[in-house]
Design goal:
It comes from Haemonchus contortus (Barber pole worm). With 133 residues, the chain is of the alpha+beta class. Helices cover 48% and strands 25% of the residues. Strand 3 (107-116) and strand 4 form a beta hairpin.
């Protein structure tokens, strides 16, 4: 019975961890965006839509999308914020002009799914942008 309870608790913790973006990862996403454009604003709604996008890309639309995926060794103990930065830094450099050109008042939100396998840690994330019309 204890084993069943433990497995259920772990499952619920994993599900819950995907519903709310980790604070360090959120800070990394915000910092990567602010470096390029201080006139765009974080959107909790787009944060939620970004998670939906990761689960089912065809169901979510956005004016601009930046995706990132990176695999880390299983024994990598760096924070989720550092891993997020490492996964997205090059993506933001590549898409820097697009982010810089977003008009003032545009919104963005990001999210990620982080999984650990027998050999690796896998970070799969996305940022969605909605241009101010």
């Amino acid at each position: 019975m204890l084993l069943v309870f433990t497995v259920l608790a772990c499952f619920l913790l994993n599900v819950a961890s995907y519903e709310t973006l980790n604070g360090q990862a959120k800070s990394a996403f915000k910092e990567l965006n602010v470096i390029l454009n201080r006139k765009i604003d974080w959107s909790d709604e787009l944060e939620k839509k970004a998670l939906e996008y990761l689960k089912s890309p065809s169901t979510v639309k956005a004016d601009m999308i930046i995706k990132g995926k990176k695999t880390f060794p299983k024994d990598d103990t760096s924070s989720l914020g550092i891993k997020t930065w490492n996964a997205f830094d090059e993506r933001f450099k590549k898409n820097g002009k697009k982010v810089r050109n977003l008009p003032e008042g545009s919104k963005y939100g990001c999210n990620l799914i982080f999984k650990t396998t027998a050999k690796n840690q896998i970070l799969n994330g996305v940022c969605l942008y909605s241009k101010k019309k």
